[in-house]
Amino acid sequence: MARLQVSPGLSIDEAELSERFVLASGPGGQNVNKVSTAVELRFDVRGSASLPDAVKARLVRLAGGRMTQEGVLVIGAQRFRSQARNREDALQRLLALVREAETAQKRRRPTRPTYGSQQRRLESKGVRSGTKAMRRRPEGE
Prior knowledge:
The protein is α+β, with helices and mostly antiparallel strands. It has one domain: Double Stranded RNA Binding Domain. Helix content is 40%, strand content 20%. It contains 4 helices and 5 strands; from the N terminus they run βββαβαβαα. The strands form 2 sheets. A 3-stranded antiparallel beta sheet has the order 3-4-5, with helices on one face. The chain has a two-stranded antiparallel sheet with strand order 1-2. Helix 2 packs across helix 3. The longest helix is centred in the last third of the chain and has 21 residues. The chain starts with a strand and ends in a 6-residue tail after the last helix.
């Protein structure tokens, strides 16, 4: 049973992945019309025993439109002319996505503008207001 190493503490069982080869569009000449070089890699995120729940949740959010209603991540690769290179490309994209989902995003700590920045803002507003006031017609007319 082979495992794909995502990071030192995380790996995915290859049995959880399924591949399907389909006809690709784009460059390749007659090769495109005859050989199924494009790869459709499927990974059942919700049913995976390899990933912790927190990583699964972030992966579902990151995947967006590549995630099906059933929780299956679908990655299509047809960038290259050869089936082997497309297969490797799809695997690398899956691993990159899982690595990104593995790292938890830092929580934003709300900050307040400094006193100096508030004063500079008000001063620049005053300067701008004065410039516009000089463009107006004098009030005595």
